[in-house]
Amino acid sequence: xxxxxxxxxxxxxxxxxxxxxxxxxxxxxxxxxxxxxxxxxxxxxxxxxxxxxxxxxxxxxxxxxxxxxxxxxxxxxxxxxxxxxxxxxxxxxxxxxxxxxxxxxxxxxxxxxxxxxxxxxxxxxxxxxxxxxxxxxxxxxxxxxxxxxxxxxxxxxxxxxxxxxxxxxxxxxxxxxxxxxxxxxxxxxxxxxxxxxxxxxxxxxxxxxxxxxxxxxxxxxxxxxxxxxxxxxxxxxxxxxxxxxxxxxxxxxxxxxxxxxxxxxxxxxxxxxxxxxxxxxxxxxxxxxxxxxxxxxxxxxxxxxxxxxxxxxxxxxxxxxxxxxxxxxxxxxxxxxxxxxxxxxxxxxxxxxxxxxxxxxxxxxxxxxxxxxxxxxxxxxxxxxxxxxxxxxxxxxxxxxxxxxxxxxxxxxxxxxxxxxxxxxxxxxxxxxxxxxxxxxxxxxxxxxxxxxxxxxxxxxxxxxxxxxxxxxxxxxxxxxxxxxxxxxxxxxxxxxxxxxxxxxxxxxxxxxxxxxxxxxxxxxxxxxxxxxxxxxxxxxxxxxxxxxxxxxxxxxxxxxxxxxxxxxxxxxxxxxxxxxxxxxxxxxxxxxxxxxxxxxxxxxxxxxxxxxxxxxxxxxxxxxxxxxxxxxxxxxxxxxxxxxxxxxxxxxxxxxxxxxxxxxxxxxxxxxxxxxxxxxxxxxxxxxxxxxxxxxxxxxxxxxxxxxxxxxxxxxxxxxxxxxxxx
Length: 728
Fold this sequence. Notes:
Pfam families: Glyco_transf_20, Trehalose_PPase
Number of strands: 28
Organism: Sphingobacterium faecale
Helix content: 40-55%
Protein name: Bifunctional alpha,alpha-trehalose-phosphate synthase (UDP-forming)/trehalose-phosphatase
Number of helices: 26
Low-confidence stretches: none
Family: Belongs to the glycosyltransferase 20 family. In the C-terminal section; belongs to the trehalose phosphatase family.
Oligomer: single chain
């Protein structure tokens, strides 16, 4: 029997391949993701799927790479040079990266990039499925290069366990909607069971995109996607705290620290470490440093900016321009402010070993992070972990880095404000050691607790919870053995009463209420059911009774309109409830009219004993906001007049409390005395019916929402199929 495996899928493998002197070198990655997930993908036959960072020159070389990587539980996805150019450099880094980092003007919406992105995501899907994935396995997809992958996998098996983590920011929906293929990308992500981000704002931006682009209404940080609820969570990524803590204490690193301090003659070291990218705020940092030297000339020869920029995407035009400008600004500052004995900026454009990085962290008096937009930024956490012994040093952190949401005991700056950065550096340089230690101690405690292992554990614990919830919901879905049990019970009965809601159940919702007429298919399936003398159909609706009479007046159905205010039971003659008060309508109408005048597309529907405020034609976000405001404004009237507030699908309805579908249904049941009751509806008004009938009826919710009903079906489209199955 196959054990449960963890399938990690990312754009790159944790081992990269280089070729030197005709020999392949397999080099372990030092990245946080590789470190954090190392213990997961190596156990129980688990695997990691990704690009190995190399294009094989021959089929023999490709096979050699596959065999070597297989020893490490790694599955390579080989990409051609053209695929790398169009999928990685193109769609991923010239469309998604600038959009997610709010650089819309940098985006290049090339159709060939989109075709390559689809093709490569499919390659990753095929490579994953080739590993004979089962429902026992757990799949964790990482980052923006693979946004289509969750749905591609879901299409192959609806019961897979799939998680996704976005390591870069997710932009506001008004920015994300600029992508021509935004719908496909969102639907791709919604193939996952759990979608996670570093920050609350990223998660909310994603949910807003689902709402305003796909018109899926979020609820409790989740989105209903057919028969699944996709959960959206916030799990800030941590680092391998212990590794950096141990490095900072090693003799090798401490000797390098001493060498650095001697080299810079005990000047204050301001450290910045970034990958070459326009999102890192490198130019703004340089401008602020120059401003510091101008504003506070006494600091000259007393500080040094040690700036390490790691090479990245040198062949992309925007990055070439950025590097050229960095070179120019560094040269300018060093030439204008430097002297024979002091160079203001030590600048390196390369990568360093982990030992050299650790030494820099330990030696630095200030770590300066000025990201204009950053998913998390782990440099600042590595700096904190490296200070666990001395517990000194000051972290200056951009408020636009994800880490800023976790680390309040830092000096937070607006990276677009040169003066703000300048003053923060000045404050840090003169901060008393005691205050430094108090701040750093707090940061160390947090970073140590929320380390990379904790992050992985939180993610998988939540994913397991979600799958358990899905399994519980699946047992309530009306299908298979559950459906057969009900149809068998129905077949054994001789006097059946079927309560059917109208809007959202028998017919779909329409923007125009009058357009929601029963279709020929609806009329036929109802007629077929009623033709069985054992069946009695009852249509129970909040609609005006005049609509029900117009559409079903020539049938033998029992009809209940306006939540029970009107009924043709038992003899087909319409009667309303006598002596129902209507004085409450005046204040309610006044409040609803106020909101109608403020909300384009909203309208009021008046019934005999209820008032409904419809906002189906209102822009989604505005409609939800106004609906909440209206509900709050109406609540104080409810106890005063004995009213009930109903929050339906794009409608808020106020009615007399004594009228509801539950009481109306119960009156018919008590007189009709059926031996089988079936009740089906889709919204909150039907919950009264489910409550009153819960002990004696088969109750079905249309849509897998929180409900008192015993069972559910996915959506309104499945209603007719279910009714046909009841017909037999």
